[in-house]
Amino acid sequence: MDGRVALVTGAARGIGAATVLALVDDGWSVLAVDVAEDNPDLPYAMGSRDELEAVVAEGNRHAGDPGRVRAFVADVRDPAAVDAAVLAAEHIWGGLDAAVAVAGVIAGGTPLWQMPAVRQQAVLDIDLGGVVSLARAAVPALLRRPEPRSGRFLAVASAAATRGLPMLAAYCAAKAGVTGLIRALAVELGSTGVTANAVSPGSTATSILDESARIYGLADAKAFAAQQPMRRLLDPAEVAAVLAFLAGPGGSGMTGAVVPVDGGLGL
């Protein structure tokens, strides 16, 4: 995949960081995008600028090239900032071949009607609105590549898209929205050479799962492993490996798919 260019949101840690590294290992150049600051409407820490820079440094070490991965600070809730990130990728490397919407947050702990409105809005605006904003900015860039194209728009949904999780209604709604968006984009993109697909992770060892454990009053996120037939948590790299596959030539026949990477949670 040398010469191919990807943009990944939520890149400072978790699945986003793992996706940056997986793509770099496959030969991609990557713009690693993250808000890189805390959100006052959410009760846990977001990825930091230091974490984002560490991912960039590690990616460049993997590549043996100090310019293969670049950092870009942007809030996915801000369409103008997302537009700027896409334009930056095109300016640095001459185009864009894949956009991967990973940025996500979680909040809950009460029934929907008791959830603070600002927290509910943060979940909807980041988990669904951020994917919409990236699609609106990135798809035209993917289509700017000359034919025959092999562009990829990818998103991270969740097993929560199809499971009713108590005290996480806004999160479930947002992730279900992501799957609907991907299916519609796949049809709209049709025969353009650009595909749209998503992965649907189960319980994965990330900060979101740590916050989920706090929401449910669990001592440790490892307790979620019992829900999955594999009886373990997923590693972010396992989800990233599927995203990298979908971004590459092996995913050429897939569009509109929501691929479970869930340790069997959805069974």
UniProtKB/TrEMBL annotation:
Pfam family for this entry, one: adh_short_C2
Xref: PANTHER family: DEHYDROGENASES, SHORT CHAIN (PTHR24321), ESTRADIOL 17-BETA-DEHYDROGENASE 8-RELATED (PTHR24321:SF8)
InterPro entries, sorted: NAD(P)-bd_dom_sf, Sc_DH/Rdtase_CS, SDR_fam, SDR_subfam_2
UniProt KW keywords: Oxidoreductase
Family from the record: Belongs to the short-chain dehydrogenases/reductases (SDR) family.
Protein's recorded name: 3-oxoacyl-[acyl-carrier-protein] reductase
Matching CDD domains: SDR_c (cd05233)
Alphabetized NCBIfam families for the sequence: SDR_subfam_2, SDR_subfam_4
Highest taxon of source: Bacteria
